[in-house]
Amino acid sequence: MKTIHLFFSVLIISAFNFSCAPGDSQREDEHPSIFLVKEENRGFTSLEDFDELERDERKAAFIKKLVSDTEKDFQVPYIDPTTDVEGRSPVHLKYANVSYDMSMLVAGRLSRSAFLFLYTGEQKYRDLVMRQIEALYDTILWPMWCDQAHVNIEPHLDIRTCR
What we know:
mainly alpha
């Protein structure tokens, strides 16, 4: 289980420090790239590339919405199956079920905060990501990662093992 924890944590944390040598990508000339990296690398979008994108109201609106959504994330230190947040199904909340809405909410929270940490460098976004990762691996807060409807159905899929 520690290997799975380590793998997931490294995957998320790599958003903070990802880099590769120029030319490592076999598809270095394909665009657009969904990967955003801190420093310029061929085949990837860098923060500088992102800043040079259309400096118009669409980009400003995107960043404003991202910051606004992330500010809502700061209302709770982390999400666990018992957390009542916008977008959480009342039925799944009642039974603390780790359903699709939980996966979506946690993944959105992590990706928004990781992007804003990379983009702004503000530690508060990194701290939010780390609190959420720590909560995910707390066996008291998250005793089970599998949707209750699928716990006895093979293959056993859950958000922790990604199988």
